[in-house]
Amino acid sequence: MELDRPKCNCGIFGIFGHKSAALQTYYGLHALQHRGQEAAGIVSLSNEGNKPIFKMYKDLGLVSDVFSDEDIISNKLSGFASIGHNRYSTFGASDSRKNIQPFMVNYRDGNLAVAHNGNLTNARKLRGELVNEGALFQTSSDTEVILHLISRSKLSDQVEQVREALMEIEGAYSVIIMTDDKIIAARDPNGFKPLCIGRLDDAYIVTSETTALDINTAEYIRDVEPGEMVVIDNNTLKTKQVKSFYYNDMPDNSSHCIFEYIYFSRPDSRIFGSNVDKIRRKLGKVLAQNHPVRDPDGDKVIVISVPDSSNTAAIGYQAQLEKLNIPSKLEIGLIRSHYIGRTFILPKQNKRDTGVRIKFNTVKGVLEGRTIVLVDDSIVRGTTSKQLVKLIREANPKSIHVRISSPPIINPCYFGMDFPSKGELIANKMEQDIDKIRDYLDVDSLEYMTTEELLEAMMDHDPNDFCTACFSGEYPIPLDRVYSKDEYDN
Known about the structure:
Layout: E1 10-16, H1 21-31, E2 39-47, E3 52-60, H2 63-66, H3 70-76, E4 81-87, E5 103-107, E6 110-120, H4 123-132, H5 144-151, H6 158-168, E7 171-178, E8 183-187, E9 196-200, E10 203-207, H7 211-214, E11 219-223, E12 228-233, E13 236-241, E14 256-257, H8 259-264, E15 270-271, E16 274-275, H9 276-290, E17 301-305, H10 311-323, E18 328-330, E19 334-336, H11 351-359, E20 360-362, H12 364-367, E21 371-376, H13 383-393, E22 399-404, H14 426-429, H15 434-441, E23 445-448, H16 451-456, E24 466-467, H17 469-472, H18 485-489
Helix pairs in contact: 5-6, 9-10, 11-13
């Protein structure tokens, strides 16, 4: 069962120079499970008889399900280096085992494996060119394009082959590539997706979020910079710059995905140089400062979150209400079940309503007779929000006020977030009229953050360093370079 939420993209992890590399990768993927729940995979590297050997295991399901047999990690994937991937599909069929990463191939210079987070906006164009040149694709994933570009390079140096391939792709990528003797990691020049470097004893780790370092008791070193390619071999770390051919006429500022702070990343992670928890609390404070709620009778306003992604913003919201001298209390008004499997049976009738009730229940004693502020991070189609409000109404509150810690989503994303088409977004269905959305949700008031307020909450950052295209329609990469008008208008 899936609720109407923004979909996370993928989590990636790589380690070089550790005797139990696959085990550390397994732990890292556990910590990144929130970034993708469809499938998981690990490729490890070992030397057997002075010959590099790649070993792979991957399947559909959660990390704990895919690697439930201890022998897989300890024996089948033994080695001194490995890369891993948690999948949520943004490009390519989600139920195809062929599309599960990491991908692994053997070419003239040895083995290659790749794990990718993001979305290549010129993948279709490059794929067409490669097919015309005789390339045979095994998957429908955009990531496979990277392997073909590397294998077809005429350069003799393997690192330069990778660099050349990365210079041909456009869009969002945080990528980890493993060869017979090294790991290569890179971020696109816009820096859409997070990627950081850590150290565990004498081994180096590259991963999507610092929470995957924490679970391994590894030390955070720094982020991989936008447009940087990091090469790790024999416990050394070197860097090169990657500047795509397509970026020559573009500004140098980055375009971090702002939804990483709003929703995707774990609050205990550090991404783009800041703690996610700190930013989310600030989002809540700015939201309360500009969109407060008061009880008409002077009673305490009850602030609740939609668990778990908006918990921290709700904390910030209630704290700011107190600073505004508005009586308030932070409460747990919705209880979320964490044990709903992918195959949970839902009835054909009232499927959405039942799905929300299976996932959430209300604490009626908290809500009854009170002015409720429901803090959430976003509204996509609006179906889940409507059902949540219906649940809360059944607890007989005095009134329900919804506050959203982001602006209305009015545009699809082409850089790794899986939002619906324009026509399916609730803000567009309601002609971007907030009052119509309020009436649809059946709440007493509804207010979103503005884009300006959102950027105000990005502490320690230049506001120009974020991609806000899903709110503003201002895409950092011109879409007419890579999509037909029909493709990006729908």
